[in-house]
Amino acid sequence: MSLYQITFSPTGGTQKAADLFAQAYADGAPVHAIDLTDRNADFSTLSLTPEDTCIIAVPSYGGRVPAPAVTRLHTIQGRGANAILMTVYGNRAFEDTLIELQDTLTKSGFHCIAAIAAVAEHSIMRQFATGRPDAEDARVLAAFEKSIHMRLEDTPPISHLTLPGNRPYRTYDGLPIKPEADRHCTKCGLCAEKCPVGAIPKDDPAKLEKAACISCMRCIAVCPEHARHVNKVLLAGASLKLKKVCAERKDDTLFLD
């Protein structure tokens, strides 16, 4: 039996939440980490067994699973492995993300046994959910792993996980907020290397293919010169729009049949 942590986390917030839960769930056992942001990886080589458990964590983009994560998860051979689903969102809402993730994993042969909607610092407007996941989130996630272990020991076994969301899923066409390089860009190419979708040309990393960009902000997070930014006017407008719905702290939401 092996424990896998499969994560799509361009800026680290989803990774932080997934790490907190995985460390508690593993209780010292080794965890095999799979990075879904690696566009060059061949995920079809990952073939699991019914004895394996996978913690699969993705951010919520407009209430949906990021499209590249869906595509890459479809190539993994679940073969009956247990899946604990996690979506991480910036204190607004997660809408159809979990149910889309459940459908994606079921088609790939996973057995979905539990789910978590966790809050992390917003990847673009960092004044929302600043510092999360925090100590209270860690406490909640650690307690939930105990509930999952206890439920797995019960009979009958977990058969179907009921999650909130709608089919068809809500429409999400991306954000107009796209990072651009400033004069401090040294064209080192790190952003092009790390971009999950290859939207930054390797031969001219100061440029951006806006149609391909998913506004994940990975390039901003990894730039050693802090030379990539989003438009301040667009950012201010988006912040004002979200202020009302994101201001009040939201709790992590847990799902277990």
Describe the structure.
The chain is of the alpha/beta class and 257 residues long. 30% of the residues lie in helices and 16% in strands. The protein has a six-stranded mixed sheet, sandwiched between helices. A two-stranded antiparallel ribbon has the order 6-7. Helix 1 packs across helix 4. The relative contact order is 0.17.
Describe the largest sheet. Answer: 6 strands, mixed
Helix content: 25-40%
The number of distinct helices, counting runs of at least 4 residues, comes to: 7
Rounded radius of gyration (Å): 18 Å
Poorly predicted parts: none
pLDDT averaged over residues? 96
In short:
This protein is an alpha/beta fold. It has 7 helices and 8 strands.
